[in-house]
Amino acid sequence: QVQLVESGGGLVQSGGSLRLSCAASGSVRIYAMGWYRQVAGKQRELVAIISSGGTTTYAGSAKGRFTISRDNAKNTVYLQLNSLKPEDTAVYYCTLYGTNYWGQGTQVTVSS
Fold first, then answer.
1. CB atoms near residue 21 (< 10 Å)
2. What integer is the mean pLDDT of 71-83?
3. Largest CA distance in the chain
4. Residues 6+ apart with CB under 8 A from 62
5. Which residues on neighbouring strands pair with residue 110, listed in sequence order?
6. Pairwise CA distance, residues 45 & 72, whole Å
7. Cβ atoms of residues 84 and 93 within 8 Å
8. Do residues 44 and 33 lie in contact, with contact meaning Cβ atoms separated by under 8 Å?
């Protein structure tokens, strides 16, 4: 069983940046990894995916502003958030893509 722990969230002004990390308790090199986000009262939405080979896919709102990456040696996946907007405010979750393994989430709040 794999545990995922997100970190790096916080409060930032509009236009600012944050780097989220997702540390896995074991090797996840063979898995695609994903970042999702959720606003209270709304459905969780996909932000980005990175395959085991490093191929990346982004939701429209993330393209050009967010970057997903992974360090298999550290069993960690990252999400670099740039040019943040108030509408990016949400709890961000990482997951072993396509599985029921999720982290507990990290709050990102962007002030205008």
1. 17
2. 97
3. 40
4. 47, 48
5. 12
6. 25
7. no
8. no
DSSP conformation letters of 34-62:
EEEEE-TTS--EEEEEE-TT--EEE-TTT
The encoded tokens of residue 41 equal 């009262």
Nearest alpha carbon to residue 105 among 31, 8, 19, 16: 8
- Contact present, 21 and 106 (Cβ < 8 Å): no
Q: List, for residues 35-76, the tens digit of each pLDDT value.
A: 999 999 999 999 999 999 999 999 999 999 999 999 999 999
Nearest to 98 by CA among 3, 34, 6: 34
CB 51 within 8 A of CB 96: no
Rounded Cα gap, residues 104 and 112, in angstroms = 26
